[in-house]
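ingest -> validate -> predict -> emit
validate: passed (alphabet ok, no gaps, 662 aa)
predict: started
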Amino acid sequence: MVTFVEVDHVDRVFYLPNGGKYIALKNIELKIKEGEFVSLIGHSGCGKSTLLNIIAGLDQASVGGVTLEGREIKEPSPDRMVVFQNYSLLPWLTVRENIALAVDEVYKNEPKGQRRGIVEEHIDMVGLRLAANKRPHELSGGMKQRVAIARALATRPKLLLLDEPFGALDALTRGSLQAQLMKICNEHNVTCVMVTHDVDEALLLSDRVVMLTNGPEAHIGQILEVPISRPRERLEVVKHPSYYNLRNEIIYFLNQQKQAKKRKAQQIPAPLVTSRSGLEKVNLDIGFMPLTDAAPLIVAKEMGFFAKYGLENITLTRAGSWNEIAKGVATGKLDAAQMLAGMPLAMTLGAGGKTPICIVNALNLSRNANAITLSKKLYNQGVRNPADLKAVINEYPDQVLTLGVSHPTSMQNLILRYWLAAGGINPDQDISLSVIPPMEMASQLKAGNIDGYCAGEPWNYMAVHEGFGFVAATALEIWSGQPKKVLGVREDWAQKYPETYLALVKALLEACQYCDEFRNREEILEIICRPEYLDVNPVYVRPGFIDPYNRGDGTEPQELTGYNQFYLNKTNYPNRTEILWMVTQLARWDLVPFPKNWVEVIERVCRADVFGAAARDLGLLDIGWDDPIHLFDGKVFNSSEPIEYLKSLEIKRNIRIEEVLI
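emit:
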C-alpha cells in the first residue's frame, strides 16, 4: 500500500493545572493511501477528534508526528480542509460568498474568472444552485452542511477531514448528504478521514474503520476492512453478505470497551501505603527458571536495582518447571515470576482446561535466545531444515520422531510447530511432541529418549558442546525479535499494589538495560551461573551471550549480536501485535479457542500503560512498534484480520471461535 498519510507513533499529552498530566492518545500508528476513506470510531473521550485535529495541523502531537506525502504536518494548510459538525459558516455571507471566501484565500493569485468558476462548480457539486444567494439563516441544517463541504472541497485539498459532519442532522437529510459525499469522493478520488459515532455511517462510507479504545492512553484496538466495492448505493451496502457481520463486529468492539470501562471503575482499591518508600508492599517472592534470560531478575537483586526502587526484601525462588511457576503465581505463593511469553495469555484464557485467571504483562524481559536442536543421528541422515526432516519422516514411516518442548503454551512450542508446519510436517500427526522441563532437555536427547527439542539457552549449546546435538535453527532465523520471557503477575495483585508493581517494572527495566551493556556481560555471566541461580558451567552460557555461537553443524561459529536481547530495539515494550499472533497460534493448534473478544483479552493481558509510566519515570522511550510480523517462510501477520490469517495457514486443527469469559 502506497502511504499517502502516515500517523507515526503519535501520543497526545495534556498537562493539568494541578501539575499532573492526562495522556489522551498513546502510540497511534496508521497509514492511509490516496483516495481511501477512513472512519475513526469509539466511545466519547477516546480521542477521535484530538487525532483528527493533529492530522489537520490544528493541534500538535506530544510524541511522534503526521506526514502527508512525506512532509511533516506542523500547522493548518489548505491541503487539509476540515468540515466540523457545527457548519462554521459566516452568517452575513451568502452560500456563494462563504465558498468564495475560501477559494479567494487559497487561489488569490489566480484570475478572478477562474476563481468564480471554481465556486460555481462546487455550488453545483453539492446541489445548491437555487440557494446560492441565500444566507445561512435561510438554510436548513443539511444545506448548511453542504455549504461547508463545498467550501472545503473548493480549495481542492489533498485530504478532507470530517468531524461528525452529519451528527446534528435528521435521518433523511443525513442519508441524502452521505450519498452526495460518496458520489463526490468517488468521482474526484478524495482522501477522507471522518470521525463518527454512527456504525452504519462508518460502514456505508469507509474503506476501513479504525476503532479506538477507551481513554486515557487510547490507542487503536482494531482496524476493520470493509470489502464492499465502489461506487456504493445504500441498499446495496445493506444487502451485502458481509454487512451485518461487519456491523456486529464494530458493535461488539464498542460493547467490549463499555464493559472494560465498567470493570475499571470496580477495580480493587489499593491498600494504604505502609513503607517508607511509598510502596504498598516491599517483601516480594519472585519465581524464575534457571535459564540465561533470567539474568534481569538476578541482576536486579544482586546489583541493587530492586533496593534502589524501595523493594527492600526480594526473594528469588528457583522453580523446577513452568507448571510450578504458573501454580505459584495463580495461588498467590509467588508475587510475580519470569514467565514464558505466551503464559499470561494462556492462563487468562484457561488453556489446558484450567480455570481462567487473568495474568498481566507490563514488561518483556528478553527476546530471541530460542533454538531448535536436533540429534546428531538426524544430522547424519542429512537433516538441515524442515524439508529435510520431512524427507526423513517419509523415508522411515515406522520411526516416530519425538521432539521436546518446555510447555504447551510456550513460544518454543509455537515456534517449533510453526517451523515444522512450514516444512509440510503436521506436528500433531507426523511426529510426537513431549513436554519436558528445559533443564532435562539435553540429558533426554543424550539418552536417546527424544530426537530433538526447542528450548532456551544454555540447553541448546550444551548439546552442541557435548557432541550429541546440533542447532538446526535459531530464533534469529525463524522470527528475529520474537518475545521470549515476560514478567507475569495476577491482575488483582497489580490492582492491589499499583505502586509496588510500578517500582518492580522500573527496577527490572533498568536491570534489562544493564544486561544489554556488553561490557557488563562477563560480570553477569559469573553471577547467573552461581549454584543458587543457573548452577551451570559458564562454558555452556558464553556462546551467544559473549562469544560466537557454534551450531555444531560444521559451519564456522557465528557472531549472534542480538541472540540474547534484554533491552535494545524496544525489547521491553509489551506488544499487542505479538500477543495477538500468539493467540492465533494457540487457536491454530486448538490449545484454546480463538477468542471472539480478542481485543478485550489482549487489553487485559498487555499492560502497556504500566510500562509507559515506568519508562517515562526513567526518561526512556515509552512506545514500541506495531509493524506486521515477518516470519522465515515469507508469511506476514496482519493484525487487522487475525481470523483470515488463521484460515490461510495450510496445516492446522479445526479452529474454534468463542467468546471467552475472563
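The first strand starts at residue 5 and ends at 15.
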